[in-house]
Specification:
There is one protein chain. With 154 residues, this protein is mainly α. It has a domain of 106 residues: Methane Monooxygenase Hydroxylase, Chain G, domain 1. 81% of the residues lie in helices and 0% in strands. The longest helix has 56 residues.
Length: 154
């Protein structure tokens, strides 16, 4: 697939791809918000399903990013040939992407903290289960051993 010839066509294609990328970032943000709810509800299955969906969206974003490399390079070398109105239009999409990314990163950081806390709680619960098992083994010694806390008469 060759690039369009005119400056305006190339800029229009760049704007279109940036718009598609912005839409995918909004989708990713929505999935991340839903994932945060799954964390709060301690729903691991729902969390994992959303994680898989997010991976697909991230791949699509990466594909668009790769496709825009030549357009970005063209933009950098032809900025002076592009009208102010077109620059404003492109800048608005870039600003939208930046704002969405900032919100996304903040939400991801908060979710990571919540996952860390949930992991610590689970680790403590598992430690207590292990301690409980050890205590039960102490009380339930085999018949060939003498009781630990009772005299031999029972």
């Amino acid at each position: 697939m060759g690039l369009p010839e005119s400056v305006e066509e190339r800029v229009a294609e760049f704007w279109h791809k940036l718009g598609a990328q912005a839409e995918l970032y909004r989708t990713l943000l929505g999935l991340t918000k839903r994932q945060a709810l799954q964390i709060a509800e301690e729903n691991l299955d729902g969390f994992m399903l959303l994680l898989e969906e997010k991976k697909k969206v991230i791949k699509e974003i990466g594909d668009i990013e790769q496709a825009t490399i030549p357009l970005r390079e063209y933009w950098e070398s032809h900025k002076e040939d592009i009208s102010d109105g077109t620059r404003v239009k492109l800048r608005s999409v870039v600003d939208e992407i930046r704002a969405t990314l900032e919100e996304l990163l903040a939400l991801e950081a908060r979710s990571q903290r919540e996952l860390g806390l949930a992991k610590e709680v689970l680790a403590e619960e598992m430690r207590q289960v292990g301690a409980g098992r050890q205590a039960m083994r102490s009380y339930n010694r085999g018949a060939d051993q003498k009781p630990r806390f009772m005299d031999e008469t029972g």
